[in-house]
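Before relying on records like the one below, remember that each one covers exactly one chain. Contacts with other chains, cofactors or solvent are not represented anywhere in the record.
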Amino acid sequence: MDGVTTFKSDYIPYEVTRRPMQLQEEYRPGSGHIDLDTTYKMDFNPHKVQPFVATRPKERRHVADGKLEGLPTYKDDYRPWEVSKRELVKPDHAYQPSSSKFGNSTTFQDDFAPKGLVPRETFKPMSIARVSDAPFDGVTSHRLSYIPHQLEPKFVIPKEEYKPNDNPFEDLTIHRRDFRGIPGELSKSFKPENTQVTSDARFSGSTEFRDRFQQWPVALPQVRKMAEYMVPQGHMDMNTTSHLDFTEHKVQPFAAIRPLTRERRSSAPFQGSTTMKEDFKAWEARRREVLKNQEEIQKPVGKFDDMTTFKAHYIPHEINVSKTFKPQNLVLKSSGPFYDGTLYRTEFTPKKLDVCPASFQDPPGYTFHESDKRGHKYFRKLSSPTGNKLTNGALVSEVAVM
């Protein structure tokens, strides 16, 4: 399949470069002097203004020493008159409620008489199952059109006959052959011995804080004594400007012009009857009975019949099971031997394994160089002219010694 699309064929990639940024110019203050004069400063002429002096004369109060005698207009115009009690003009209503029972009918009761319920005739067809006398025909188009064909035999791959190996099984591994368990020196531990330091001397409770800290004498803070109050000598002048400037006048107390209210007490009994009590008397009220129509549909009596239309009209038919044409899922068994040959067994070629020189106590072709603190031994090749490089055999020797 060719994976080239219209987008890949029409689209041409262009090299996109970054848009150059506009460098902002460095601000440089202008040279010279700024003229701060405005039209307001040039046109406005300051004038000397004197403080405002009020032309209104000061208010002076003239207080007379004599007594004020006179009749005010309120006393002269508004004099107490004798007012008589006004009689009631309300007519007498002698209402007497009827003693007979209220039994009048309303217009709703007269016009709307209870009528019986008339059931409406239904035009819905009866849901009755139509039962056929003919036997059930279970033939389908699948059964008529389907033609069974004979299957060809399945191709079976012939299995090769298993041929066991006559050679004995070699269970020698590389680890058993190469590793001989050469004893090596154990690495020395540089951890100090955990010995408990004990002493029979008595524990001295002196510490660095107690040795270097010296107790300085501290004096108590001085309390400042308050000065004793001294009573001033001489007489205290209690006069104020209000006492000196205020002139006392003899003024009579204000007399009320309103006549005194006198309580009128009567020996007659108190009449507590009011128009509310006389006109609105409590009537005997009874709760109105609820008008109920008689039920025309009577409740059913007897045991409930749970027979439904489905139970009554349902007719069970015998079901014919359709034949399945699916092949059976059976395991094919063979009497021949099981072939366990794999690609690894057929294509594997054994190769010669080289013996690691670190497995020997004295590796052939190497000389001992040194041993470190952890017990690792380093060897050098005899054929090396400089003798500075360590071979892989020396590295393997380290691992073997660990």
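The first helix runs from residue 6 to 10.
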